[in-house]
């Protein structure tokens, strides 16, 4: 079966690099699926979850916003951040989500509102990727 090379790159590191069967990524207009031989494409990515399929196995990464370039044999994803589930600290994410919820409950405006919304959104994405690995045990 034909494969496509996928590289997910952040400013700090190469988060993922391997030949894969399929990529599913969050664009500004919705999810997009990429298979080997896909038509060339350049698109903006939003914060969300990248799903990678390879030999019947799924890998999920939480990503920040960025861009994706697709050619027939290679896909490059350039994003602000990218984390596999095993790289995410569950307790830190839960604490960040609670902090964001508290900030939003205070009904902030302007920059404070945008920052709280962004923290909440990133926390939700990280928790979604973690849930793919194992069910979360929340201790309230």
From TrEMBL:
<keyword id="KW-0472">Membrane</keyword>
<keyword id="KW-0406">Ion transport</keyword>
<comment type="subunit">
    <text>F-type ATPases have 2 components, CF(1) - the catalytic core - and CF(0) - the membrane proton channel. CF(1) has five subunits: alpha(3), beta(3), gamma(1), delta(1), epsilon(1). CF(0) has three main subunits: a, b and c.</text>
</comment>
<dbReference type="GO" id="GO:0005886">
    <property type="term" value="C:plasma membrane"/>
</dbReference>
<feature type="domain" description="ATP synthase F1 complex delta/epsilon subunit N-terminal">
    <location>
        <begin position="6"/>
        <end position="82"/>
    </location>
</feature>
<keyword id="KW-0066">ATP synthesis</keyword>
<dbReference type="InterPro" id="IPR020546">
    <property type="entry name" value="ATP_synth_F1_dsu/esu_N"/>
</dbReference>
<comment type="similarity">
    <text>Belongs to the ATPase epsilon chain family.</text>
</comment>
<dbReference type="InterPro" id="IPR001469">
    <property type="entry name" value="ATP_synth_F1_dsu/esu"/>
</dbReference>
<keyword id="KW-0375">Hydrogen ion transport</keyword>
<keyword id="KW-0139">CF(1)</keyword>
<dbReference type="Pfam" id="PF02823">
    <property type="entry name" value="ATP-synt_DE_N"/>
</dbReference>
<protein>
    <recommendedName>
        <fullName>ATP synthase epsilon chain</fullName>
    </recommendedName>
</protein>
<dbReference type="InterPro" id="IPR036771">
    <property type="entry name" value="ATPsynth_dsu/esu_N"/>
</dbReference>
<keyword id="KW-0813">Transport</keyword>
<dbReference type="GO" id="GO:0045259">
    <property type="term" value="C:proton-transporting ATP synthase complex"/>
</dbReference>
<dbReference type="GO" id="GO:0005524">
    <property type="term" value="F:ATP binding"/>
</dbReference>
<comment type="function">
    <text>Produces ATP from ADP in the presence of a proton gradient across the membrane.</text>
</comment>
<dbReference type="GO" id="GO:0046933">
    <property type="term" value="F:proton-transporting ATP synthase activity, rotational mechanism"/>
</dbReference>
<dbReference type="GO" id="GO:0012505">
    <property type="term" value="C:endomembrane system"/>
</dbReference>
<keyword id="KW-1003">Cell membrane</keyword>
